[in-house]
Amino acid sequence: MTRKKLHRAIGRLPTTCEAGRILLLLGVALLSAERAIAQKASADEYEIRAAMIFNLTKFIDWPSWKLDGAHPEFDVCLLGSDPIGTNIDALMQGKTVQSKPVVVKHLTSIDNATACHILYESAGSRKGVAHALGELEKSAVLTVSEKSNSDNPAQVMGLPTSEDHVHIEVNLGAAQRSGLTISSRLLHLATVTH
Fold this sequence. Notes:
The chain is of the alpha/beta class and 194 residues long. 40% of the residues lie in helices and 21% in strands. It is built from 6 helices and 12 strands.
């Protein structure tokens, strides 16, 4: 390149101030893109969890008294507010379990949770299921959260995220105390604790 062409090319480069603005705009654009990807991944994570909760019903047997005429619907309860709620509401619409219509209930306290078949505890729930564990076990409630069973040992099932995947953890002792029978097919896919 001749010296004259080089000077013309340099003359077309932005000034230091303009270059700083361009770099700043690029940085903002990249940050926005990362946030959008993270939000999409988070939304996908909740959709996956919602689908997993419904599909779990195919691999778990509740005691016959929990599915009798005194329980005309299959109650999936959400304790606390969680982004999974909107996904579960949409996914469960029109679904049935053991020929019972699925009804999603949003609970603000654990008081009415014994009527639930599945109780999903949100990550932000202030009062966990631990203090009502005895009643929930007697009522054959499948307790689930996004926490690992090591972080929430009172629950029957954890659906934690690790390495961008939602994993299934089953506390077999808690399941047995709750009168729930979990299919060996699910146990082969899950991390089993006692």
